[in-house]
Structure formats: C-alpha cells, structure tokens
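Below: protein 1.
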Amino acid sequence: MNVKITDLHPTQLYLSEKKLQDIQMLYQSAENINVDPISILAVSNRFLITDGHHRAYQALLAGRDTISAEFDQDGGNALYALYAQVCEERKIDSILDLKDRILPQDEYEAKWYNWCDGFNQAATLLLKRKADEE
C-alpha cells in the first residue's frame, strides 16, 4: 500500500548521514526506483514508522508525496508507542523534523544504538510492571 509521507510519525531520534547517502545514490542511479516498503504500525490513529526512516526521508527529499509501506507483523506496538512519545517530547512529529538530526555514521551508531539499549531495558521493565498490575 502507499501512504502519505506526511502522515508518518517517526519513532527514532536521529538519521545516519551514510545511510541517507546510500539511499540517495539508489534514487540517482535508477529511472524506476525499487525501494523496499517501509514498515509501519497503526497506533492511536497514526502510522508509526518501525523501519524505513531513512527511505521515507529520502523519498520526501526526492519530491515524493507517498511511499510504499506494509504493516509490521513483529509486534512491539507498546514499545513503538513509547518511542513515538519520546519523539513527540523532542518535537519530532514528522519525518522532516529529523532534518537537523542527521549524524555521521559513527556518531549515529554511538548515540542512537546506546540510547536504544538503555531505553529498551527501561521500557521493558515498565511494560512488564504495567502488565503485572493489570
């Protein structure tokens, strides 16, 4: 299915400069761009990106209004909803809001992956506690 890029809500805080360059080269090298669909979840009447932030950002820069997407079948809705909440708190409400958060690959890996590890541990404990209370 195709979704409007402006309807997508990010669930990550940074983009990798290298990943964007790789995708940009793909866009420049082919007349018919065959980019894998991004993965999304429908949570609270929003489409959360679970995989494909870089592809969505590059599609927007390339002047596209829509991007191919498929629903994520791996679960994790509650965790991605927490990621989206963190993004909202940092005023990241659309894919374009990541334009000032593009980092060199080594810095991206250090900041994003380390943040994710800590956040995932805390979120897992929080979600487990909520489930136990219910």
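Below: protein 2.
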Amino acid sequence: MSRIQTVVSDLRNGLGAVKLRPDVKKVTLMFSRKSDNAGARYFLRENMPRIQYNNPAIEFEVKKVKEPGVSPELTVEFANNDIKKIPCSRIQSSDICKQFLSATTEGSA
C-alpha cells in the first residue's frame, strides 16, 4: 500500500470518521500550547482530520492561544444557533472525540 493510500485509508476509518448531523454549522477548537491542553492537541492531530475529511461542508476553526491558563474547549455551532461547548481540560483525545460525536451525530438531538 502506498503512502497516499495509507493516509486516505486512515482518514476514512477510525475514531471520528463519520458523517455529522446536517445541522452542524461550525466546529471551533481553542487551546493553549501550555498546561493541561495535551488532549486537545492530540484531538487536533489525530481526530479532527478524519472529521474534516468526512464532513467537507462544515467550517472548522482552530484557535491556538499564546497565553497560559486558557481552558481548552471544543465548541459546536448548529444551524438553529444553538451552541454546545465541550470542555477539554485534562481529557484524552479519544474521550473528547467520543463526547463530540455524541453531541453531533444522528443519534443525538
């Protein structure tokens, strides 16, 4: 398998490789490079590419804050202007992804 085939296969499979609800409008990940933000950084590197690949119509934004002490947070905006905030402080990336998918896939409303 070539390197490109491996990358595409990884994007299509694994945690986060799902279609989100059609009313998800925007996803914002905010974190600092310091303190307890490792889960958010790993989520950005491991899970967010899969989510973006499988949901090209949704806007994704990443805010890396330089000041320490900022609590990492994943914010989901829906078409009806509802906002769901998922705190990411001291949580592993897989748990962040599971909480995100619970709030944004068809089974939830």
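The chain has one domain: 3-104.
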